[in-house]
Amino acid sequence: MLTAIGMVELTSIAKGFEAADAMIKAADVEILSATAVCPGKYFVIVHGNVAAVESAVKSGKAIAGEYLVDEFILANVHPAVFPAITSTTPLTDIRALGILESFSIATMIVAADAALKAANVDAIDLRLGSGLGGKSYFTMTGDVSAVQAAVSAGSDSAIEKGLLVEKVVIPSPSKELISAIF
Fold first, then answer.
1. What is the bridge-based pairing of β-strands 122-128 and 136-142?
2. Furthest-apart CA pair in the chain: how many Å?
């Protein structure tokens, strides 16, 4: 079970590799994901106990230096975040569709976590940078009022860092839209 996750996001792929190595050597953490994404960015997500993740992220930030785009530490990540990242969330009934979009991968993971914790919504997909020019987005569904509350909470999180691109709630999206995008 994940106790904490942390991430560093960099504008240098080479420094990303170096940061990933430093993070693993700094503390007893495991890499959940370390990969290059558009446009030439690199991110590393680690998990472990809170103190280890804090130490690892601190080391990653030190290596990143001027190449650091964003970072986070979440002590108790919502369990629906990772199935959404890996697109393994089963689609069933899409009542209202909520979309959050940010300039940062790290910011979007934190925003998705905040949205999922704020209201009774289901995660659909969490797209992280690849093929998106470095942007990320999170989609969710639920009752209209729940989606509105979740989108509000998630966007507040992204606004704090100044990295929110847009937020949208679509009540009763058309079946054609749903089949075209999912």
1. antiparallel
2. 49
- Indicate whether 92 and 163 sit together in one domain: yes
pLDDT digits (tens, 9 = 90+) for 13-34: 999 999 999 999 999 999 988 9
**What distance lies between CA 65 and its chain's CA centroid?**
21
Residue 70 and residue 106 in one domain: no
Report the domain count for the chain. 2
Query: Helix (H, G, I), strand (E, B), or coil: what is residue 136?
Result: strand
Q: What is the pTM of this model?
A: 0.81
Quote the domain boundaries for residue 45: 4-74
Residue whose C-alpha is closest to residue 62's, from 32, 27, 38: 27
DSSP 66: G
Co-location of 68 and 90 in the same domain: no
